[in-house]
Amino acid sequence: MPFSDPTQDLPVPPVAEANQQRRLRVAQGILLLFHGTGFLGLTFSQNPGFYLQFVPLNLLLTAALLLAFQPDRRGMFVTFCVVVMAVGFFVEVVGIRTGRLFGVYEYGATLGVKWLGVPLIIGLNWLLLTYMTGILARYLPAPGFVRALAAAVLMVGMDLCIEPVAVHFDFWSWQFNRIPLQNFKGWFAIALILQVYFNRTDFVKRNPLAPFVYLLQLLFFFGLGWLIR
């Protein structure tokens, strides 16, 4: 297969594979518990604010569990994480100050502590989405740039599901209460740049938890967005 990826097929000893499967099931169970509790609380609770205060914690927990399944967390992988978080954070700073990247918007209080008007945790969110979708695109038997395009589409697809929930629960708000098409164009452009960088950075690109986390978050935000309409 001309476009196979050797990082997907590294041999794993049987005992190590069994231990990894146990760890994987535990991680999936924890993520299901947190997302399920949040979903029910935000949908049916008389006090959704109680659950909203745990949004940053949920993001940190998801990141910790996801990155725990990254085979090699040294060297270039650390560099990749720092660069993506920094780029993600500062494009948001430029975005809210100029309105030229994504449209005119501002952040609310839900995502926690801000610096320069942007929640500090936003950089981590960009990292998780870039990393997850980049890993998913590695399964495609295609050249690197096609994988980058596919991963960028997956990132925009997630943003489509997040936007109605984010606006409703004061993650951020848009001018005239309308999500502009410019937002999705900007997201795609930045996502594509980050995915090209992902493909060109030399670290093991394999994570058995990534497909589960992406699907869980997609269903979480899609379901919430449908119920709060």
UniProtKB/TrEMBL annotation:
<dbReference type="InterPro" id="IPR007354">
    <property type="entry name" value="CruF-like"/>
</dbReference>
<feature type="transmembrane region" description="Helical">
    <location>
        <begin position="76"/>
        <end position="96"/>
    </location>
</feature>
<dbReference type="Pfam" id="PF04240">
    <property type="entry name" value="Caroten_synth"/>
</dbReference>
<feature type="transmembrane region" description="Helical">
    <location>
        <begin position="116"/>
        <end position="136"/>
    </location>
</feature>
<protein>
    <submittedName>
        <fullName>Putative membrane protein</fullName>
    </submittedName>
</protein>
<feature type="transmembrane region" description="Helical">
    <location>
        <begin position="50"/>
        <end position="69"/>
    </location>
</feature>
<feature type="transmembrane region" description="Helical">
    <location>
        <begin position="148"/>
        <end position="167"/>
    </location>
</feature>
<keyword id="KW-0472">Membrane</keyword>
<feature type="transmembrane region" description="Helical">
    <location>
        <begin position="209"/>
        <end position="228"/>
    </location>
</feature>
<keyword id="KW-1133">Transmembrane helix</keyword>
<keyword id="KW-0812">Transmembrane</keyword>
